[in-house]
Amino acid sequence: MINLDAAANTIPTEDVINAVVTAMRDGAANPASAHELGDRARAVLARARDAVISLLDGALDDGVIFTSGCTEANNTVFAGISADTIITSTVEHPSVLRSVERAASSGTTVLFVPVDRGGLVDLEKLGAMVGSAQGPLLVSIQFANSETGVIQPIAAIAGMLASRSQTTFHSDAAQAFGKMPIDLSRGFGPDVITVSGHKLHAPMGVGAIVAAERGVLLTPLLVGGDQEGALRAGTEAVPLIAGFGAACEARADTIDECMLRMSHLRDRLEAQLRDALLDVIFLDGLAARLPNISSVRFPGVDGMSLIAQLDSRGVAASQGSACSSRRPEPSHVLMAMGVSENDAFETVRFSISALTTDAEIDEAASIIADSVNHLRRASWAQA
User: Fold this and answer.
1) Which of 121, 254, 334, 351 has the smallest number of CB atoms closer than 10 Å to its CB?
2) Alpha carbon of 182 to those of 156, 179, 185, 313, 349: distances in Å?
């Protein structure tokens, strides 16, 4: 398969696989154990924390809490930060939106800031919401969108919130982590971010909450033991964390190169689709995008049918977040941007990784164009 659904999951690299296997073979035991095997496990965790921080500016040295992934991390943030009001956007990941719904059912005031047609949050309306909020406030705005790749004005939001007391700024950075610079310094970035390993060639089942240097007051979601600074009870998944650390170390050494390469591959795919399909429509407006995501509308073609056709021909793609894309509903992200239901159903997301090759892009572009034309001919024949 040619994986053009890397925003959902990336293939672990050999370095990552070796790190996982080594941790298992070397007897990395329970990190809470007071013997040599426990020491080995603690060393693995320490190295992985350093590796996560190496991809960030302004992070707290011991501010990494390992979780099972970004969904658990997001749930922990929303359950563990005391707030009278939560402000979030209409284009967040389902794990954020469902967490917000839970908070609202418990009496927390929840406000949703809209986005414009380019997918950017309305800063003026966000400012008004912040100004009217009373008491402790949690603002959660994603770093970048998983369906469109649109990067939010995080620094502007951080600057807006910097002088307000009793305010925590959280950002779901699952898609942005390792694909763009992330600065957590006060006035430039969030107080806390959440990330996931399997978007970055690490194993599935591992992620993290990362606090800025100024720290963040967090109550644990899982209780029972003192693991992860007493903020996430339960024995750590040492082999998975070892793989996560290896992935972060590799990306820290090559992030500029990877960003350029993914941007080149995305642009190559879009250029070939433009040449082959004259009516194709790209979400490539004025808003900055991640280098690896392309949101494409194929007028007159049902997106799910196209995804099935591509799957049968060896190309993996999707219509949005893997946590909701199997549901027969239009993308809530595109609908929030003012896209019609019909146009949303005609839109497909292609996402690449640093392992994608030029040859794969060329082959995939040819298959996509041929599949679109095949589906159109079939539709015309039925009409």
Assistant:
1) 254
2) 14, 9, 9, 37, 24
Q: What is the residue type of 303?
A: G
182 phi and psi angles, rounded to 5 deg:
-130, 120
Distance of alpha carbon 299 from alpha carbon 336, whole angstroms = 20
As a whole number of Å, the CA-based R_g of the chain is 21
Q: Are strands 85-89 and 137-140 parallel, antiparallel or unpaired?
A: parallel
Tell me the C-alpha distance between 146 and 66, whole Å.
22
d(CA 305, CA 347): 11
Q: Report the CATH number of the 14-249 domain.
A: 3.40.640.10
Fill in the DSSP letter of residue 82: -
Residue type, 351: S
Q: Per-domain residue ranges for the chain?
A: 2-7+255-382, 14-249
pLDDT digits (tens, 9 = 90+) for 46-65: 999 999 999 999 999 999 99
**Which pLDDT band holds residue 286 (cuts at 50, 70, 90)?**
confident
- Note the pLDDT of residue 323: 59
Helices (H), the chain: 14-25, 36-53, 70-80, 94-105, 123-132, 154-161, 227-230, 238-276, 303-312, 332-336, 341-345, 358-382
Other beta carbons within 10 angstroms of residue 143's beta carbon come to: 23
Tokens 């563990």 identify what position? 80
2-7+255-382: CATH topology is Aspartate Aminotransferase, domain 1 (3.90.1150)
Over 70: is that where the pLDDT of 361 sits?
yes
Length of the chain: 383
Cα–Cα distance measured from residue 289 to residue 283, given in angstroms and rounded to the nearest whole number: 10
pLDDT of residue 380: 79
Q: State pLDDT tens for residues 223-281.
A: 999 999 999 999 999 999 999 999 999 999 999 999 999 999 999 999 999 999 999 99
**Three-state secondary structure of 159-172:** HHHCCCCCEEEEEE
CA–CA separation, 343 and 334 (whole Å): 9
- Range of weakest confidence among 24-33, 194-203, 319-328: 319-328
Q: Is 35 exposed, middle or buried (0-12, 13-18, 19+ CB in 10 A)?
A: exposed
Judge whether 258 counts as a catalytic residue.
no
